[in-house]
Automatic annotation (TrEMBL), chains A, B:
Protein name: Dipeptidase PepE
UniProt-listed InterPro entries: Class_I_gatase-like, Peptidase_S51
GO annotation (BP), single: proteolysis
Gene (name only): pepE
Key words of the record: Dipeptidase, Hydrolase, Protease, Serine protease
Entry's Gene Ontology molecular function annotations: dipeptidase activity; serine-type peptidase activity
UniProt key word Protease: yes
Enzyme Commission numbers on file: 3.4.13.21
Amino acid sequence: MKNLLIASTSTVHGGNYLAYLLPELQLHFAQSKSILFVPYARPGGISHEEYTLKVKSFFALLNIEVNGLHEFSNPTQAIEKAEGIFTGGGNTFLLVTQLHQNNQMQILKKVIESGTPYLGTSAGSNICGPTMQTTNDMPIIYPPSFETLGVIPFNLNPHYLDTDLQSKHMGETRETRIKEFHQFNAQPVIGLREGSWLDVKGEQITLKGELSARLFRQNQEAIEVESGNKMEKFV
Amino acid sequence: MKNLLIASTSTVHGGNYLAYLLPELQLHFAQSKSILFVPYARPGGISHEEYTLKVKSFFALLNIEVNGLHEFSNPTQAIEKAEGIFTGGGNTFLLVTQLHQNNQMQILKKVIESGTPYLGTSAGSNICGPTMQTTNDMPIIYPPSFETLGVIPFNLNPHYLDTDLQSKHMGETRETRIKEFHQFNAQPVIGLREGSWLDVKGEQITLKGELSARLFRQNQEAIEVESGNKMEKFV
C-alpha cells in the first residue's frame, strides 16, 4: 500500500529544517532503521554531500541513519532495498534530469507503489504528480522529459502563494500560471501552502496541516479545500 | 545593424498597455508602416486573435498597422518582409515551443541581425538571450529545446523582483534561482526591473528607464548597474 508524506516545504518560517514535521515523521518512518536520501535537487547549488549531511543531522534526532543515493555503486539496488526514501527540495529541473538520466524514475515509482515509505518536500513533492509542469523553479537544465512519478493523480504547486491584491508587480500570479497550465493539460493541480502536506495511504490522499489548499481543475473555478479532506474525491 | 528594444514588461503598474514606452516606440518604429506581431506566448491563455487585437489597438495610436504571424499562409516570408516585429509576453515555454516547431527561430534571428526593428516584452524579451533558462514562467509545455535567439550575449530575467527581507515565504528568491542557474551555465543574467528596457543598437546595449538593473555573473557577486550604462562592458 502506498505510504507517502508529500510536503509543501521542508522548513516553515522561523523553524528549523523539518522540525514542524517531526511528530509525523516519527510515525511515518517508525519501521525504518535507515532511509535513502535523494539529494539531486541541490538547493542553492550545494553538493550532494553537503545536502546529505544536513539531512543526516536531522534524522539523527529520530535515531534513523541516512545514506545519500549518490554514495551507492548500485543505486538501483539501494532504491529497491531502502526501508524509507526522502527526496529533498531544490531545483525540480535538476532533480528530474538526474532521475531520468540515471534511469531511476521507474524504479522509484515501483518501490513507492509497493509501499516503501516516501517523504518529499518541495521539489521532492513535485515529482509525485504525473508531471513537473507546475513547479515554480527555473529551467536551469533541460530534462529528457517533464514526466514524473505519477503516484498521485494531481500535479502539485508547492509553496503556493495567494495573489497579493496590494502588489504593484506586473509578473503573472501563481493562479494565472496554473490557469495557463490548464490550457494544455488536464490533470488537477493542488496549490499546497507552506506548512501543509498530503498524507497518502493507498489511494486515500488526506490534506494535513493548519491551512486549506487551493485546488485547480481544468475548465472550473479554483476552490479552497479545508485540511482533513480527502483530495481523491476531487479528481 | 541590430535594432532592438527589449523591455521587462508591457505594462507598468497603474498604466495602460505599452503606454510608458510610447515615445520610444514612435522612434523605434518610425520607418515601419506595419509590424508583424508574434502572439504565441498567449498570456493567461488568450487566443492568437484576441492577443493580436489588443496589440492592433495600441499601435493604431501610432498609425502603425499590425498583422499577427498566425494569419499568414507563408509565415517565413512574412518574417523576412516585416518592417518591424513585436513579440509579446505570456508563457515563454509556449512561445519557444511554437517558434521551434514552426522552424521560425533561425529566420527571426536572421532578420533581427540584418536590422529589422524588434520589440520584445517579457517572454518576447526572454528569447533575445542565448537561452530561455532564466524565465519565471511555468513549464506548461515541453519545448524541443531551451535555446533562443541569442541576439544579445546575456540571458534575461524580466519582472526582476528584489528579495523581500520581510517575507515569511520559504520559496526560493529570484537571486537564489539565478545562482542555481550559474551552477550549470556561464552566460551573465540581467535582472531587468519593471519599467526598464535594453536599447540595442548594433553591439551596443544600453540600459534605459528609471531603475538600475541587477547583473549576475558566474562566480561573482551580483552588482547593480545604473540606467544609461552600456551592458556589453560587463560580459
